[in-house]
Amino acid sequence: MTKARLLRLSVVLVSVFMILLIIVYWDNVGTAHFYLHTSFSRPHSPEAIPGITAGGDWEALPEVDEFLAKLLSSSLKQNSSTSRKTEQLLVQGSSKPVVSNLEENVRGYDWSTHNARNSLDQEKLQLERQRTLREFCANSSFAFPTKERSFDDIPNYELNHLIVDDRHGIIYCYVPKVACTNWKRVMIVLSESLLDQGVPYRNPLDIPREHVHNTSTHLTFNKFWRRYGKFSRHLMKIKLKKYTKFLFVRDPFVRLISAFRSKFELENEEFYRRFAIPMLKLYSNHTNLPTSVSEAFGAGLKVSFSDFIQYLLDPRTEKMAPFNEHWRQVYRLCHPCQIDYDFIGKLETLDEDAAYLLQLLKVDRLLRFPPSYRNRTASSWEDDWFAKIPLAWRQQLYKLYEADFVLFGYPKPENLLKD
């Protein structure tokens, strides 16, 4: 009898020790914060809007994933009370923060309200956007570079645009020139990854731009290897299955105009030295250029939109280095055929899309999405900007960005591609 009791006691102690060992180990690699409380937790079918149904369907996960997910989800009850306290704290934040950044003061914000009755039928809109993306990713007759790669084939450095918020189970792929500054601000507030005098930021617009774009502020997929070692890809896949994944896109040609305006029409020392000087030398035959952007602007030396287009089309550009993120194609930044996004927003419908997304994420009580710029680059400007660009260049440029047009449902700009 005594031996049987000792045996049972030994089994219990060994089991408890193993569980504690696993918990401590995963806590050391940062996975104790791997919260799975997201409304998009159930695998979805093409016939349903992903994420509308909440629940914990573990059947689609392999055994190892299932074990990790169940183990880690046990922390939800403990975290729920903390989340509620955080929500109460954040909701007290000011509804209209003071804008201190120079660029944002110059541009100004549109604080006008939007009539809810005029909002789009977001549920059907999301279904259509996702269906378009999936159909063209599956269409073997529509080809573009990197389309056939698997997720495992994507190098870590190409995953640096995927920002993770473990507190709410969200993954955001940021696309420069598509409201990414403000979406990064939202991610900082939600993840509480940045403090102001020891307190997490409560309002997105309170966060200075220099902190928003500091890469150390965000947990991105390309940092997983340093944090999780050999488990990095495994954890990426678990989070991609269980977290809500979203991105925002924009008409590709309008995005190029916006990038040009931002980086070459305003004084930007970094972009002047890295890009403007080579462009002025190669395409405008300038020599002995000033070393600073202020001197160049003072002398009237600026990159033209034509110079910029030539640079994009020049085959030497990609051979020297991949496109800068501000004009790199979205399919290269966010890998939409390898990652099954739950929500696809567009800058053209930013206000409606942002409000709907925050609702679906169940964080709309915590914050509001920052308002739009009043003078946002408009699609109606395309004709004027491309008027002096030769037809052959426009056609080549479309081929360069065709995948972004097609995958995200933007119509082919026929008026720019024909005489």
Automatic annotation (TrEMBL):
Which InterPro entries is this protein grouped with?
Carb_sulfotrans_8-10 (IPR018011), Sulfotransferase (IPR005331)
Q: Which UniProt keywords apply?
A: Carbohydrate metabolism, Glycoprotein, Golgi apparatus, Membrane, Signal-anchor, Transferase, Transmembrane, Transmembrane helix
Q: Name one Pfam family in it.
A: Sulfotransfer_2
Membrane topology value: Single-pass type II membrane protein
What is the top-level taxon of the source organism?
Answer: Eukaryota
> In the record, what terms sit under GO molecular function?
sulfotransferase activity
Q: Where in the cell is it found?
A: Golgi apparatus membrane
Q: Which family does it belong to?
A: Belongs to the sulfotransferase 2 family.
Q: Tell me what this protein is called.
A: Carbohydrate sulfotransferase
Organism of origin = Alectura lathami (Australian brush turkey)
